[in-house]
Amino acid sequence: MISKSSQKLVDYWRRQGLSLSAGCDLSTIVEFERRNQVELPEAVRDYFRAADGMRETFKDSEDPNGFSFWPLSRVAQAPEATSNDRSPVLDNARYFLFADYLQLSWTYACDFAAGSLGSVILIGRASPERISDSFEEFIELYIANSERLYKGRS
């Protein structure tokens, strides 16, 4: 059964005319978790079971606003990020890149630590900025085209 937030996302993409990839099977998700030593938050697991990101074809690789949600095979551990004073500000072992804006101008990473709700951060500024406290909240902000997607919580 697909969650309400995943269904809203799939419906949103269909209304935009995007052709969607079929969702991942559970064994693919479990293999990703094993290989990366993480446990996807339930909302993230559900999302990848509903749709394995956007298709990586020219027409369907991003929405009209320039956002691209990646297939699970492209999801990768976030690079270590530092602030202007060069001190580490991101525990990159927990965060995985899953989406970008304007062809990698910015990327979005989700917290895949065990027990996490999947908070999302924006990477591409002097230091990472928290966008949402959960993956489901990020989906709601994305569908609403919230300014927080672009500015973080300033």
Please characterize this protein's 3D structure.
The protein has 154 residues and is of the alpha+beta class. The chain has a single domain, classed as SMI1/KNR4-like. 29% of the residues lie in helices and 17% in strands. It contains five helices and six strands. It has helices at residues 4-15, 26-36, 42-50, 135-143, 148-151, and strands at 67-69, 76-77, 95-101, 106-111, 120-123, 129-132. Strands 1, 2, 3, 4, 5 and 6 form a six-stranded antiparallel beta sheet that branches. Strand 4 (106-111) and strand 5 (120-123) form a beta hairpin. The longest helix is centred in the first third of the chain and has 12 residues, at 4-15. It is globular and about 35 Å long.
